[in-house]
Amino acid sequence: MLKRASSLIMAGLLLLTMAACGSNPVQADKVFANYGIETELSSMDAQVVTDGTSFTIIENTTEGLTQFDKNSVIVPAIAESWEISEDGMTYTFHLRKDAKWSNGTPVTANDFIFAWKRLADPATASDYQFFITDVSGIRNANAIAAGTAALDSLGAEAPDEHTLVVYLERPVPYFLSLVLFPPMFPVNEEFYNSVKELYGQSKDATLANGPFMLTYWEQGGTQITVERNPEYYAKDEVTIDGVNFVVVKDAQSALLAYRNGDIDKFTLTGELVEQFENDPEFSIVDGSYLWYILVNHKEAHLDNAELRLALATAYDKQAICSGILKDGSVPADYFVPTKLATGPDGKDFRETSPVYLEYNPASALAHWEKAKKELAIDSLEISLIVEDTESAIAVATFIQDAIQKNLPGITVKLETMSKKARLQRQSDKDYQLSLTRWGPDYSDPMTYLEQFKTNTTSIGWDNARYDALVDEVTFGRTALEPVARWEMMKEIEKELLQNADIMPVYQKNNAVLQKKNLTGIEEHMTIGNLFKHAVKTTD
Amino acid sequence: MKDEIKIETGREFELVGIRADMHIDKNYASQSFWKDVVVRFTRNKGSVFGMMMILLILILAIVGPTMNGYTYDNVNLDHQNLAPRVKWLSHFSIFDGAEKGVDRYAALGLSDTYYWFGTDTLGRDLWTRTWEGTRISLFIAFVAVVIDMVIGVSYGLVSGYFGGAVDSFMQRIVEILNGIPTLITVTLLMLVMEPGLKSIILALMLTGWIGMSRVARAQVLKLKEQEYVLAARTLGIGHIDLIAKEILPNIFGQLITMSMFSIPSAIFSEAFLSFVGLGVPTPMASLGSLINDGYKSFLTHPYMLVFPTVVLALLMLSFNLMADGLRDAFDPKMQEL
Amino acid sequence: MSRYILKRLILAVLTLLVIVFVLFLMLQYMPGSPFNDEKLNAEQVAALKSKYGLDQPVYIRFFKYVSHMVRGDFGLSYNIQKNVPISSMIRGRLPVSIRLGAQAVLLGTLLGLVLGVMAALWHNTFVDTLCTIVSVVGVSVPSFVFAFFLLYNLGFKAGLFPILYKVTLPVSSTVLPTLALSMFPLAQIARFSRTEMLEVLGSDYMLFAESKGLTSFRLHAVHALRNVLIPIITVLAPLIVSLMTGSMVIEKIFSVPGVGSLLVTAIQSNDYNVVVSLTFIYCVMYIGIMLVVDMLYGVIDPRIRLTKENSHEG
Predict the structure, then answer these.
(1) Which of A383-392, B173-182, C145-154 has the least mean pLDDT?
(2) Interface predicted TM-score of the whole assembly (ipTM), two decimals
(3) Pick from A90, B24, B55, B320: CA 20 to 30 A from residue A232's CA?
(4) Which residues are A83's β-sheet partners?
(5) Which positions in chain A touch C39 (Cβ < 8 Å)?
(6) Domains, chain C, ranges and CATH?
(7) Do B122 and A397 touch (CB under 8 A)?
C-alpha cells in the first residue's frame, strides 16, 4: 500500500508539472520594453477596473475621444475635432474615419454611447460611476444611476456613425480632460455582446483601438504582454514592438531584476532611493497623489480649530520628504497639487494661490496652549489610523514623534491596519485622525476640492459656507465665468485649510530607475506610463 | 473480532485494595531523581553553554535598553542610517561607523556619538531597539511555551489516551481549527481587539498549541499499548494517575524538544502578525518586526538585518542546546550511547 | 479498512461544511468591506452589495454558496480580478503552489531524514554538530532572509537561475523558491528524526535485534527507521500546511504566480469569495493529508491499525 500511495503521489506531481507548463508567450527578435509593476492586472474592462496597473495597460491599448500630447495639452484622439456650444453645455465630436478596433471593425460614436450607458447603469455597479454622474454632468446620468430614468435617456446621441453629440446638465469646463480617462473609453457593443460577462477577462475577450493590443495574459500570471496593434490609425508613430508588464512585488527583488536586465523600468521605494540619487538612470516623475491627514470633526476636541492648527503645523513636512520618502515628494502646504490644472491666466493653480499650515513648532505650541485653555484640558490622547505600507507607517511614526515632542501633553497612538480596514473605519466615522491620500480623476482643482460636502464624506462636519461655495462653482453662474470660478476655487481651498479642517502632508512623487536605452515614455497627471512613443535601442 | 466482549478502556481492571503483605519495591529512589537530572545536565557542555547564553541575552534584554542613554522610540532624521560604531572596537571594520568606506559620522560631525548597533531609517538607536525587541520576543516565547504545555499537551494526552469517539471528536475540532488559516483568525482579531501584545497572545492561543497536541497524541498512541502501561492498568491505576505518572514522564523528552521548536515559531508568528498589522504597535519593536524592517534595507544597510538576526539565531541555538541537555538529563538512556 | 475510510470521508465532508460556515461567520465580522473606496457614495455601495448578494443574511448566502460550490462554481472575485470566476483565477495558480510545496517537502524531508539519522548514528561527532547547526539556522533565520540570500548569490551574482518566475522557464524558475522553502522542513525533520533515532537506538528491541546478529544495514534501515517514521509523519502533516504560509512570502520575493500571495491580497482587499475558496481548498488538502497520514500509520505500525479498527468498528 505504501508503494501504491507513493506511485500515486508521483503521478500527481508529474501531472502538476505538466499542467504548469501550459502555453508560453512567443517573442522572437522583437524589441520589447520590460516594465516592472507591483500588482497583477485585474481586468481589461475599462468601466469596471479601479487599480493603477489595469488603468496603465488599458491606457496603452485603448484611446478615448481626446488625449494628452507630450506637454499634457489636450489634443484630438479618436475625435479629430469638436465644437462646444456657447453655453458650454453641448459638445459635438467628429470622429476619425480611420479609427478601427483590433478586429477590424470601425470605432463609431455608438461605441462611446454604449460604454457610457454601461458606466451609468446601476446594473454594472461600477466603482467609477460617480465619474459620469457627479463629475461629467452628462444629462440624465444621475437619474439613470438612481434608477429613475431609462438608459436611453442619457444625454449623448449619434446623428451619424462618426458624430457624437453630448448634452450636459451644467457647464463642465474640464469636460475634454474627462474623456481621456479610462472609464469614458469606448466599448464595441457587438463585440461586447459576443462575450457578455466575460468581457475584459482574457485576451480573447478584449479589443484594442490604441497603439498596442493585449497578446499574453494568463489569469493570475505575473507577466502581461501587449504588442503593436496593426489596426491602429497612427501605427507608424509606434516604434516599439511591445511591452512586457512584469509583476514584481518585492522592492529588492525588483532592483536585482533591473540590474540583471530582466526589467527596464520600475519605481524605487524606501531606502533603495537613497542609493541611486546620483545615478544617471535615476529620475523623479511628478505624481499627483496628495497625502493628508483626514480629521473626524465629530470626535471630541477635534472640532476645536486651535487644536487642529497645533497638530497641523507641528510636523516638519520637509523632513518627511527629504528624510523618509526621498523620492522627490514635496511638502504640501496646500491641498490642490502642483501641475494639476492650468487656469484661465495660463498659470498653474499653485502659482497664484497662497500656502497654508507651514511647519512652525513655535506657533504650533502657542495654538496648543490656547486649545488647552479653550477645551479645559492639559493632556490629550489621540489616535491616528494608518495603512500597513512601509512608507505610510514610517511617515506616521515620524508625525507621532514630532507631535509628541513639539506639543507636550499630547500622546499619539498609531493604529496600523490594511487599507480596506482603514477606509471602512473612515466611512464608519470610527476614527480620529487618518493618514490618507487622494488622486485626481481629471485636470481641475475641483477633483480635490469638492469632496468634503456635508453628509457625503467621512470628515463629519457641517460647513454651510463650504457647501455653498462648492455648489456655486459646480452648478451656479460662476461655473461659466472661468476667472471668477478660478478665484472661487482658491476660496474653497482657503476654507478647507485656514482652520486646518484637513491637514496636508506631502505631494507624492515617484523615484524611477529607467535604462538609458529606453526613452519616450509619457507621463501626465491623471494618466501615465504611455509607451506609444517609447523607443528602445540596443546598446 | 466481532464476538469479543467490549470493555471500556481503563475499566478492564479494578483495584482490590492494598494489603500489608504486598511488596512494593522502593529501592530505585536511593538518589533523588531531580538531583540526578541536575548532575547529568551540568555534565553536558553544550547545554550549559546554552543556558549561559540564554541568561546573558535575558540580562541584556533587561538592562540593554538603558545602557547607552538612547530611547527606543526617539526619531532623529539627522542621525538616520548610521552604521554601528563602538569606541573601543573601532579598529574592527564592523564597528568603525563606516559603511562601504563612507563614515557618515564624520560627515555629520558626530565625532563623539556612538550607536553600538547603528541606527535605523528613522534614526532610532538599534542597540536599544534590539534589546527592547528581545524583551518582547522572549515574553511572547515564554507565553507560547506555557500555552503549548498547558493546552497542547493536555489536549493531545486526553485525545490520544481515551481514543475512540473522544479522540475522533477532538481531532475534528483540531482539523477545523487548523483548517482555517491563521492569517484569517488573526485578521479577525484586529476588529475585536486593539493591536498589541494581548491580541498576539490570543492569536497564538487559538492555533499555536495544535502542533504540540499532535505530538503528544502520537506519543500516547505509541505508549499506551506498551507492556508497562498495561501492567500499571492491571494494578488498577486511575486515568489521571496513569497519564501523569506513567505516560507523561516517558514522553517528556519529546515534549521539551517540541516546545523548543514552538519558541521560534511563536517568535515568527509574531513577525508575521507585524506584517499583517497585528504585531506590536509601532514604535514598539520585537525581534521579528526588526528583522522584517531590516530586510527592507538589506541591500543598502545590511547591518540593520544582521544584529536582530544574530540575536535571534543565538537565542534559538541556545534554546536548542538547552533542550538537548534537558532531554538527555531526563532520559539517562541517552548517556549510555 | 474500507468502512473506516468511508467513515472518515463522511466526517471530512462534515468538517468542511463546518469550516465554510465558520468562515462565513468570521468574514461577516472582518474589518472592512470589499466596497468602501473613498470615491463611492452610499447608494453605490448598496447597489454593489445587492449585485453580489451581500445584502442577504449569512445563512442564505451560506446555503447558496455551498450549493454553487457543489457544482464547481466558487463565485466571482469582487475586486482582485473584477467579476472573474474564482475557479479560473485559481486554476492557473494552484498547480504552481502545489508543485512548489511538494518539491520543498520532498527535498526537505529526504535531506532532513538523512541528516537526522546520520547525526544519531554518529552521535556527538562532527555530523551531529552539523545537524544541530543546520536545524538551528533553518528554524531561526526567517525564510525570506534565506530566500533573498539565495536570490542574491545564485540568482543575481552567479546568474544560475532566474530571479523572477518566468513562464517560459517553469522548471529552473522553481529551483530557488523550492530551496528557500525546503529549509524549514529540512531543519524540523532533521532535528526530530535525530531525537527519535537516538531513542530507538537505545531501546531494548534494537539490542535484541542486534544480538540476533542482524547486519548493521538491515538493523538500521528496517528496524530503526520504521520506528522513526511514525512521529516524523505526525509532524510532516502540519509542516506541509505551514508551507502554505511560508509560500506567501517566498511567492512575493520570487514573483511566483501562486495562491499564497493571492490569499494575502484577498484578505487585505476583503475579497470574500476568494478567501473562502482558497481556505476551502486549503482545508481539503489538509484533511486529505491527515487521512493519508492516519492510513500510513497503519501501514508502518500495525498495532495502531488494530486499535483503530477496534474502536471504530467494534
Answers:
(1) B173-182
(2) 0.76
(3) A90
(4) A92
(5) 127-128, 130, 441
(6) 86-313 (1.10.3720.10)
(7) yes
